[in-house]
Amino acid sequence: MSVTHAARRKLRRSLASGELVVAPGVFDGLSASLVRRVGFDAAYMTGAGVAASGFGLPDIGLVTQTEMTERARVLTGVLGDLPLIADADTGYGAPLNVIRTVREYEAAGVAAIQLEDQAFPKKCGHLPDKELVSTAEFVVKLRAALGARTDPDLVVIARTDARAPLGLDAAIERANTYADAGADVLFIEAPQSIDEIERIATEVPGPKLINLVTGGLTPIESTRRIADLGYAIAIQPSLPLGAAAYAMLTGLAELAGRDPAPLLPTKPAEFFDLVGLAEWSELGDRHRIEGV
């Protein structure tokens, strides 16, 4: 059995066991090495982390599929048989683009690929003003993804960002539609209270993923509580990246004789401002098509 297939089988066994998989965010060789060294059961390739650490960009859809695929290849090379759950944003285009994305990510050795129902260009799930494609459009893309994998053990995760623009009821309805379409794991992004986390656990069948972002919209619950609610995967995408950024900021500020406090972020938007969110947003507004 190849290392890649061993990683996929390992993740499949974990999902079947009912035990919670905790997957910290990885974004480069060092973070992947440390996650493996500490002994986690899986790692999560964070799109936000790759954008910020690899390219100095905010998580607003600026990184391409080929750039993400290459980073996935680096990470799987370091992780070996430790499963990598890989963020693939919207699939980078239409159903044909989704098919190529799945093929490239699969060839790069990921154990799971995550696709979301935002419109392109997407935004970090914990930023405002997200836009969605229709449920029907995403189901077509999801089915294209499911049909594109050549290894049936590759896990396909369907994420909906409907909570913020449409409300929790719509998000749950979308998640259940994606389950019916064949998604292996369901992911409702950014529930905003403990009650919402509990409702998702009760009303969405099958394996579920929860995203615990430091300073984000979702309350940070203990892994024990998340496991008791029946979630299959808990990703912590921002924890290693935030710790690294904090250390770099404080060290550099000390070197420069500056107070780091004004630069230290407390929520995702403030972190992305460190890599140009305000400037990129101004550019987007300047070139917005009237009426859109």
TrEMBL record:
<dbReference type="InterPro" id="IPR040442">
    <property type="entry name" value="Pyrv_kinase-like_dom_sf"/>
</dbReference>
<dbReference type="InterPro" id="IPR015813">
    <property type="entry name" value="Pyrv/PenolPyrv_kinase-like_dom"/>
</dbReference>
<dbReference type="InterPro" id="IPR039556">
    <property type="entry name" value="ICL/PEPM"/>
</dbReference>
<dbReference type="Pfam" id="PF13714">
    <property type="entry name" value="PEP_mutase"/>
</dbReference>
<dbReference type="InterPro" id="IPR018523">
    <property type="entry name" value="Isocitrate_lyase_ph_CS"/>
</dbReference>
<protein>
    <submittedName>
        <fullName>Carboxyvinyl-carboxyphosphonate phosphorylmutase</fullName>
    </submittedName>
</protein>
<dbReference type="GO" id="GO:0016833">
    <property type="term" value="F:oxo-acid-lyase activity"/>
</dbReference>
